[in-house]
């Protein structure tokens, strides 16, 4: 119904309930019909829906595949403009910060706010194709329909192709008001009478005849004022909202109607919303310009521009659309990259996944109809909030919608030859579109000609200004144009750009210019010039912690050397690039590529007598690969060889210190803390620069934490951060991430959840910035554990699954163990049948790697599972094995409480009360002793509290193992 009120819908739903006992009595139905929307029953329905935050009806039944997110600000602006236009109190229009579309404030009941005189108004709703203009207006209309006086809402769209009849979009608005299909060619008596009740007889006749046949020029001249008059008169009966989308494609007659409405809009309760596509041209620029000026001259128009969704909004969309067991963070990252925040593109991707069976609605294990084929795309939409989607493919395989490249190529082919030539040049230049650079690179060209071309590109939506430069409006635009350039032309254009970036005699290039010049030289195929740029650039990027660029530069260097003949100098250069490539691949988690670079290094003929330094670096890189993949026995051998060869070569303190620190980390992982501390101290003595000292202090801090020296661990973090602050010329977000992760771990053990959470979230952000995948995995997994502590179970599960996904991708077996263990604990606490299977895989993996502490904790949890099942024999065996591992290898205090407390609980269960009581007594004594070592009174108090609460929870057979904490307000 165009008179958008759901009152009758709800009334009929109650009257037609399947159960006769639940149907509303006839007398009550009559009373509600008599009172209508202003009655007490309907107001109570609205208040209850707002209080519960129930989604608007369109969100469930509108056929939209994805939820509306990230448009709170734009929705609030539309709401304010509407209230000004129709005369509602402006103060009640303001939305609370962060209000979503399901929690919009309801219009005030009659008499609660002083009405204002209607002033009329218009709003330009502007955005590229797929930005969600119609979706946003539908959300606005669904809110407006819940008001005491719902407006008449009419929606239409102009088509880019020629209309079948003049003023076609406005005629379809009229048919919608009459509740007739768009193809209607004549009016019946009912519709004719309705039209005559609004419009004068002559104009009503004109409107009816316009449907009967294609209007001639003479009838079109009469039709334009008749339609405009109809809209104006319609607003006398109730507030009217008219939304005409894609008005830039409107025919002359439609624009004529809108122009006449604009001239009479002042003082009418009529809100005119004009949707316009960016970058898609205009069918009649002259009339459209007149319409803009007419609205501006009367101060009636405002403008809302829909940009792309940001990453946070895409994550919210994915969180609402996908089940919490799916890797939602990764899905959101890939969707954002594929769509660049365009909601329409996201919808296309998801719809394609459903159609191909690559995504399906979540069903619990064993539920009827579960599996990829259980949800057809056409059925998806109702109940989505209750189930959610899961993927049957990895997030990285999400496709790019085909329509995007097709659209761009279509636009590109329509350009004149001169503009296509400049677009090709601009796609080569990429991020350095400045007039000075373009004039230097692509001579001969005049500045006036260039400025004219750039102005046209901006106007047509290819470019946008960015300070004193320009950039492509969307990355996909540049990519599509770039791919269309023939290979020989591409190399020639890159060579021109590289020459423009060459330094003048006596000058040096900035890092940004050097990287751009290297990019163009590589594309131009000039290997000798490229190598001269790459070597100093590689050193600069390493110091700045830019792993992605180090990875690219090293690959470019190896590729360039492969095209040239072999010399002694070039072989030395090859080793440098191969080492850098292997190092970057290790940090990025590209295990297959890392092995390939290491194989190339191993193929080099290096002798311990003459090439000890190079061979030491090779062993160090092999040791890092072994650590990253959890092969700790192999890692020990490689790292020890690196230390021995580094000492033999002499003057290699940087390498020896790094090898000893990494060897210390391996020893700490397997519980050999005394040897780990000795190695870390030696590494600190040999450290050459402050960043190397900082990471060694962090390793000492990890050992302090494992030995329950919590304040000492915090001091090590502070020392590391102080060294990093004073390290000029270095920027190492990965080291900062490790520091904040360690700080978060310590604060968790000290009972400071808010500080721990903030530190761990910062660590995750820094790890992503540094592109350190293994570090990101561990910080994400530990963040998941913290979220579980504060009772955010779904967020915790999502983080742990993201961490497990990263661990699997990077072949990080330690990461698989840790993330799998914590996820198994979470799932068991929620009675998920996946938990025992997951823990059964984690235990043997921890045993195989020598991660005795993780194995002991896993055994303790499995013992609790066996006890709950009534298998006391298995529970006793697992808890005993966990206790033995604890005695040999130790554990940090929280794990010690869980392992020992679980053993005591099981002993009590089987009747061995004295043995269980002794364990608890010894554990409480140790807790007091460890807490007394904390000097800060506040930290000591919180440490005692969190330890006691954990012990009480572990000793109880009911509830979660880890007690839930409340963040301070």
Attribute tags:
64% helix; 969 residues; single chain; flat; 43 helices; mainly alpha; two-stranded antiparallel sheet
Describe the overall structure.
- This protein is 64% helix and 5% strand.
- The strands form 3 sheets. The protein has a 5-stranded parallel sheet, sandwiched between helices. The protein has a two-stranded antiparallel ribbon with strand order 6-7.
- Helix 33 runs parallel beside helix 35 (773-789) and helix 42 (913-932) runs antiparallel to helix 43 (937-955).
- The longest helix is centred in the middle third of the chain and has 21 residues, at 568-588.
- The relative contact order is 0.04.
Strand order of the largest sheet: 2-3-4-1-5
Count of DSSP E strands? 9
Give the low-confidence spans. 48-63, 91-112, 214-218, 368-386
Percent range of helical residues = 55-70%
Question: Main sheet, how many strands, which sense, barrel?
Answer: 5 strands, parallel
Helix/strand-derived class? mainly alpha
State the oligomer.
Answer: single chain
Number of helices: 43
What Rg do the Cα atoms give?
34 Å
Q: State the shape.
A: flat
Mean pLDDT: 83
Distance between the termini: 47 Å
Q: Which percent range describes the beta-strand content?
A: under 5%
């Amino acid at each position: 119904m165009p008179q958008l009120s759901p009152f009758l819908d709800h009334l009929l739903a109650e009257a037609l309930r399947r159960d006769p006992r639940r149907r509303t009595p006839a007398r009550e139905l009559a009373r509600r019909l008599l009172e209508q929307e202003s009655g007490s029953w309907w107001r109570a329905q609205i208040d209850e829906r707002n209080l519960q935050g129930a989604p608007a009806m369109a969100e469930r039944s509108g056929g939209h595949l994805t939820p509306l997110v990230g448009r709170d600000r734009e929705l609030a602006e539309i709401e304010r403009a509407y209230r000004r236009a129709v005369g509602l109190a402006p103060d009640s229009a303001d939305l609370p910060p962060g209000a979503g579309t399901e929690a919009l404030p309801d219009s005030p009941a009659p008499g609660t706010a002083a009405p204002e005189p209607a002033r009329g108004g218009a709003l330009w709703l502007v955005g590229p194709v797929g930005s969600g203009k119609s979706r946003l207006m539908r959300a606005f209309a669904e809110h407006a329909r819940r008001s005491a006086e719902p407006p008449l809402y009419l929606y239409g769209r102009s088509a880019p192709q020629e209309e079948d009849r003049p003023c076609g979009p406005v005629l379809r608005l009229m048919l919608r008001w009459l509740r007739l299909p768009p193809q209607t060619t004549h009016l019946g008596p009912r519709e004719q009478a309705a039209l005559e009740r609004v419009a004068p007889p002559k104009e009503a006749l004109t409107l009816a005849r316009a449907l009967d046949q294609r209007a001639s020029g003479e009838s079109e001249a009469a039709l334009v004022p008749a339609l405009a008059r109809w809209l104006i008169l319609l607003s006398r009966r109730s507030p009217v909202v008219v939304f005409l989308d894609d008005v830039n494609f409107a025919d002359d007659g439609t624009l004529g109607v809108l122009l006449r409405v604009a001239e009479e809009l002042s003082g009418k309760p009529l809100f005119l919303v004009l949707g316009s596509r960016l970058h898609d041209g205009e069918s009649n620029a002259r009339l459209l310009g007149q319409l803009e000026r007419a609205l501006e001259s009367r101060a009636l128009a405002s403008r809302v521009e829909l940009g792309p969704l940001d990453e946070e909004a895409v994550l919210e969309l994915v969180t609402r659309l996908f089940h919490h067991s799916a890797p939602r963070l990764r899905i959101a990252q890939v969707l954002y990259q594929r769509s660049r925040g365009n909601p329409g593109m996201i919808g296309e991707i998801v719809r394609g996944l459903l159609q191909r069976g690559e995504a399906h609605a979540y069903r619990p294990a064993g539920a009827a109809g579960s599996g990829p084929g259980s949800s057809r795309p056409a059925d998806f939409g109702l109940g989505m909030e209750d189930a959610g989607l899961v993927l049957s493919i990895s997030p990285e395989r999400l496709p790019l919608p085909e329509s995007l490249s097709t659209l761009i190529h279509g636009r590109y082919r329509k350009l004149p030859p001169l503009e296509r030539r400049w677009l090709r040049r601009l796609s080569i230049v990429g991020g350095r579109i400045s007039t000075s650079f373009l004039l230097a690179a692509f001579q001969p060209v005049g500045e006036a000609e260039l400025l004219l071309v750039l102005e046209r590109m901006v106007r047509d939506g290819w470019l946008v200004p960015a300070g004193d430069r320009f950039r492509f409006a969307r990355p996909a635009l540049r990519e599509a144009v770039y791919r269309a350039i023939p290979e020989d032309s591409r190399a020639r254009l890159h060579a021109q750009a590289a020459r423009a970036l060459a330094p003048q005699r006596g000058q040096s290039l900035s890092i940004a210019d050097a990287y751009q010049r290297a990019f163009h030289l590589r594309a131009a195929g000039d290997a000798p010039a490229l190598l001269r740029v790459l070597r100093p650039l590689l050193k600069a990027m390493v110091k700045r912690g830019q792993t992605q660029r180090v990875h690219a530069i090293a690959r470019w260097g190896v590729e360039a050397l492969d095209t040239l003949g072999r010399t002694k100098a070039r072989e030395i250069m090859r080793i440098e690039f191969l080492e850098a490539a292997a190092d970057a691949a290790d940090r990025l988690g590209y295990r297959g590529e890392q092995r390939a670079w290491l194989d190339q290094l191993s193929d080099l003929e290096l002798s311990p007598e003459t090439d000890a330094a190079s061979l030491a670096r090779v062993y160090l890189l092999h040791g890092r690969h072994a650590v990253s993949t959890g092969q700790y026995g192999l890692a020990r051998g490689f790292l020890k060889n690196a230390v021995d060869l580094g000492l033999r070569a002499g003057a290699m303190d940087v390498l020896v210190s790094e090898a000893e620190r990494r060897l210390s980390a391996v020893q700490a992982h397997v519980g050999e803390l005394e040897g780990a501390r000795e190695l870390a101290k030696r590494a600190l003595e040999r450290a050459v620069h402050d960043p190397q000292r900082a990471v060694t202090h962090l390793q000492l801090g990890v050992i302090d934490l494992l030995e329950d020296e919590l304040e000492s661990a915090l001091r090590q973090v502070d020392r590391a951060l102080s060294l990093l602050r004073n390290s000029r010329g270095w920027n190492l977000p990965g080291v900062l991430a490790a520091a904040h992760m360690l700080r978060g771990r310590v604060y968790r053990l000290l009972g400071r959840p808010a500080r721990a959470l903030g530190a761990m979230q910062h660590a995750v952000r820094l790890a992503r910035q540094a592109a350190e995948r293994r570090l990101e995995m561990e910080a994400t997994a530990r963040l998941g554990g913290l979220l579980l502590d504060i009772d955010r179970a779904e967020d915790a599960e999502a983080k742990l699954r993201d961490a497990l996904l990263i661990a699997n991708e990077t072949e990080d077996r330690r990461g698989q163990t840790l993330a799998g263990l914590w996820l198994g604990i979470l799932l068991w606490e929620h009675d998920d049948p996946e938990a025992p299977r997951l823990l059964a895989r984690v235990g043997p993996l921890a045993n195989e790697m020598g991660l005795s502490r993780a194995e002991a904790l896993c055994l303790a949890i499995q013992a609790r599972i066996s006890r709950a099942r009534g298998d006391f024999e298995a529970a006793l065996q697992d808890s005993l094995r966990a206790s033995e591992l604890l005695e040999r290898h130790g554990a940090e205090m929280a794990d010690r409480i869980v392992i020992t407390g679980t053993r005591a609980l099981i002993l009590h269960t089987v009747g061995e009360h004295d043995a269980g009581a002794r364990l608890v007594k010894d554990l409480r004594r140790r807790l007091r002793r460890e807490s007394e070592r904390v000097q800060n009174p506040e930290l000591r108090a919180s440490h005692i509290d969190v330890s006691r609460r954990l012990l009480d929870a572990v000793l109880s057979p009911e509830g979660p193992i880890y007690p839930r904490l409340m963040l301070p307000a």
